[in-house]
């Protein structure tokens, strides 16, 4: 097992490097970099995208910040000022040099400072992380709490009316877009047109610091109920059907037939043998599912419920071309995602010690 983990850890380096190379290269062809954003604002032209579209797309934009005055929106600004901006943002160096300097800093977990917020990327991520952890953790737990018992029940009652109508319900829930369901929840339960049961926005109330410990817990749960339900609704179908199919597959295997033939009670066969084997794939997938929700904690859901999380941070950084935030978070979460994939494999061994990854061919 140790050799397998070592191989996987060594593969993290070239994989992460490849991710960064591809994304860095793509940004070199995207118009409207940080310099363009600043120049457009200084010229009073508003958003840089308006400047680009207003020129018919042939403004001669230098996305690599080469140092000349061909920037759209730079007509009334002196070249020395533009060159100073390039040096300040590091665009006076060739892209290859900038990339390797960036990777050297990232290897030391120095993610730099946001171009437009004057805050370090690390502090920005730590500031937004509680919202994303809340959405990721609670939505994953809710999905498992509901989907696993439901999937087991559907496997036991396969083909029954219960199986049929629950399948219809979860498929309909899967088909409803998360943002549309979030709006429906707001209209029904957050004072839209019917009941004012849950708060409209935020993760805590304005008087949160004045509440008792128990009051803070209740206030926190009160605020996260609707966004967690909205972001979890589509994951019920996948996890429920995965659980059901896993149990059906195990129930049809020869060892189950043999155990029943020996006179073992159905309950003992199910929970003593089938349960552990069937739950292997479900439990082992927990880290990946959590990270998936954590990473993509729906930008739209965060916007609808006014939650300032990593989803909105990433979107705003992409719009503003805030490269330190974009690449810093990409490196950190890319590394985290790759390590979680290794953790998922370790979960397989933890659930079923019979699995031996060292015997696999590489």
TrEMBL record:
It is found in: Cell inner membrane; Cell membrane. The chain crosses the membrane at residues 9-30, 131-152, 164-190, 220-243, 278-305, 325-351. Keywords: Cell inner membrane, Cell membrane, Membrane, Transmembrane, Transmembrane helix, Transport. InterPro entries: MetI-like, MetI-like_sf. It is a multi-pass membrane protein. GO terms for cellular component: plasma membrane. The keyword ATP-binding does not apply. GO terms for biological process: microcin transport; transmembrane transport. Residues 129-348 form the ABC transmembrane type-1 domain. Pfam families: BPD_transp_1. CDD domains: TM_PBP2. The keyword Cytoplasm does not apply. Signal peptide: none annotated. Belongs to the binding-protein-dependent transport system permease family. NCBIfam families: PRK15133.1 (NF011712). This is Inner membrane ABC transporter permease protein YejB.
